Amino acid sequence: VQLAESGGGSVQAGGSLRLACVTSGLTISRYCMAWFRRNPGEEREQVAEICNGGSPKYSDSVTGRFTISQDNAKSTLYLQMNNVKPEDTATYYCAARWFLSGQPNYWGQGTQVTVSS
């Protein structure tokens, strides 16, 4: 199983980015797929999750600005980030969790997002 994120980079506050997570070796429709973010020395934060194409869940910090989606045919998970803020700066990871698992079973390597004011 492999998860590979892309789309990170540097953006000014108020701008947009679209992250992608291409997967192989699993069927994403059979997992809960999520985006996490983390800065060095800080706790990991789950920012969005979608399970089997159901209603997405978002953290309060990104609700109304970020949108998680998936393309099952492409085995790809996306995170559309709009109106980004400097506090969105972090390394973003995608993760796959089996429905009955409490924690993700698989992780990507991460992609860096840096938002300047």
- The Rg value, from CA coordinates, equals 13 Å
In percent terms, what proportion of residues is strand?
A: over 45%
Oligomer: single chain
Number of helices: 0
The global form is globular
Mean pLDDT: 96
Low-confidence stretches: none
Q: How does the major sheet shape up? A: 7 strands, mixed
Total beta strands: 11
The helix fraction, in percent, is: under 10%
Structural class: mainly beta
What is the distance, rounded to the nearest whole angstrom, between the alpha carbons of the first and last residues? 37 Å
Offer a concise description of the structure:
By secondary structure, the chain is mostly beta strands.
Task: List the defining traits of the structure above.
mainly beta; 4-stranded antiparallel beta sheet; 117 residues
Question: What does this protein look like?
Answer:
The protein is mostly beta strands and 117 residues long. 0% of the residues lie in helices and 54% in strands. It is built from no helices and eleven strands. The strands form two sheets. Strands 2, 4, 5, 6, 9, 10 and 11 form a seven-stranded mixed sheet that branches. A four-stranded antiparallel sheet has the order 1-3-8-7, with no helix packed on it. Strand 7 and strand 8 (76-81) form a beta hairpin. The chain is globular, with a radius of gyration of 13 Å. The model has no long low-confidence stretch (mean pLDDT 96).
What is this structure's SSE topology?
Blueprint: E1 2-6, E2 9-12, E3 17-24, E4 31-38, E5 45-51, E6 57-58, E7 66-71, E8 76-81, E9 90-98, E10 106-107, E11 111-116
